[in-house]
Input
Amino acid sequence: MAQLFTPRATVRFRAAIILVLAGGLAIGALLFFWARSDPAWNLGKPAKQPIPFQHSLHAGTLGIDCRYCHSTVERAAAAGMPSAAACLTCHSEIWQGASLLEPVRTSAALDIPIPWLSVHRLPAYAYFHHGIHVSAGVACESCHGRVDTMRETVKTQTLSMGWCLDCHRDPAGRIRPQDAVFSMGWTPHDSSAPEEVKAFYREARSRLTDCSTCHR
Amino acid sequence: MSGEAGTAPAARRIADAPLSPRFGPLWRLSLGLSGLLILTLAVTLGASWLRGVGVWGVNIPFVWGFDLINYAWWIGVANGASLFAAILVLRRHDLRTAVNRFAEGAALMAVLCAAMFPIIHLGRPWLFYWTFPYPATFQVWPQFRSTLTWDFWAISTHAVITSLLWYVGLIPDLATLRDRARSLRAARVYGILALGWRFSLRQWAYHQVAYRTAAILVLPLILVMQSTVAFEFASTLVPGWHDTRLPLQFVASGLTQGLATVLLVAAILRRSLELGFVIDEEDMDLLGKLVLASGLVAGYLFLDEILAAFLAEPVRREAMLNRWTGPYAGYAAAAALLAVLVPQLLWKRSLRTGLLVPVLAGIGVNAGVWCDRFSLLIGGLQKDYLPSMWRSYTPTLVETGLLAGTIGLFAALLLLFARFLPVVSMFEARHDEHMEQA
Output
């Protein structure tokens, strides 16, 4: 029988072993970095909203308080999306006939909600309550970014479980006094939290990282 | 000694089987039948995967049903067979020539069958890798106190080490097949699998070290694997399960099961491939005695379980009595009958060396251990602390299909193994012949 393998076969075989191992490592590294990349979490991608609403104009230039439109943010699990009536408080006076605002007028006339698309959507198995976070001193900005500068609303944080845990494991440095929760671009005079707040969260940490705190 | 020149007659005859162009209608029929069972496996796995575990008969309090019964059962085959093979290698026992190769192969195939059940019973099987501690974005380690992570480590360790033992043993034989192959294609395939084996003394020296190292690695597995499975039950608070003697019972009955499987496969291979010259009467005799002895140990442990329960607290005693007199008493009785009494046929040498009794004992012990696992799992859960939870368990067609399917997979893998690889170690057979001549 003829020679089974050429003289270079051994070299090729060894190279193949190294390549397969290296390939496995490369795939692992690729998955590692992809899972942490912006596209994997839909960061910076605006949704196609029914109305080209600009946070930068309303919250930024005009300085309307977050709670004016997201009215249940201090009390309920959901922050609440503005009803057509809320928009029409002003828009019955200004930009009355603007065609861009047609969905608002239709909604008001038919008494149906405006079909806003959610940018920050948590999975159903994660329990999240806006009210408790606001009253604990977690600022809007901490999770939603500088909304007051966004023409189109986008996600700036991954909202991954690891990201939630970053704060739940050590909240003391990330919370604000009550009067700064709704401010944008707030910088504390003293970046370290008061000693009693730190002491409280040292004790509360195990509660905050219980499975059943967020998965009920 | 180099290659073809050193191939002794026994090794030639062993190599004839994988190199023969045809294998006969019986082999094709058996492969077809196991193929049908694999089809059943695919359908039932698909149903469990797509529809979820709701297609099974499990429900509170029977959180575990066929899934864990079959898992514990297959692990028993794998563990018993691989431990047996490893001990033979380490002791350089004469029996290793006859049984090691297919015992290692059967162990590996049983691990593959076993591995399916913990994955499919997760409910969300596609997330099975969550039991592995990798840098996940959710920044939480797997729960190391969870039996699911124990399963992961136990099975992956077992699969790696058993396949190492099997493959390292195969390398010199693959090289012999490479040298004896009749077609260039077969020679190339065997040649690649032989990893450049040239029968040099240096390679033999390395091979002995590697083979024995792999065999040593198997030894702790018997304790780790079977005890892991047993602790999955023992670490719960179910009266019939919460017992420190459970790992011992699993290890002992698992060893009986592994030995019985080796005996069964030996009897079938010996007859179908005419390997009587290498798996001779002495080997069958010894194997039969081992199955008989380990069957007696398993029987002793059955008795011990009953006696220990009478000495234990009332709730434990009631749990045992319910297993033996309750609605699933038949399984407890069948376990004792099949796993302990059927091997008693092996007392007579002429029966040990035949075909029928080893096959009967092999199937009997395996069926008996399966019944024992059923009796423990289902009979143990049937009367829990709360009388309002006393229900009964009926497996669905899907669960039965999974069991039959894995048996088909095991049989098909074994048939393919017998078709394309030497089922008996050629280099050990050659070694034995040289020893005899010398």
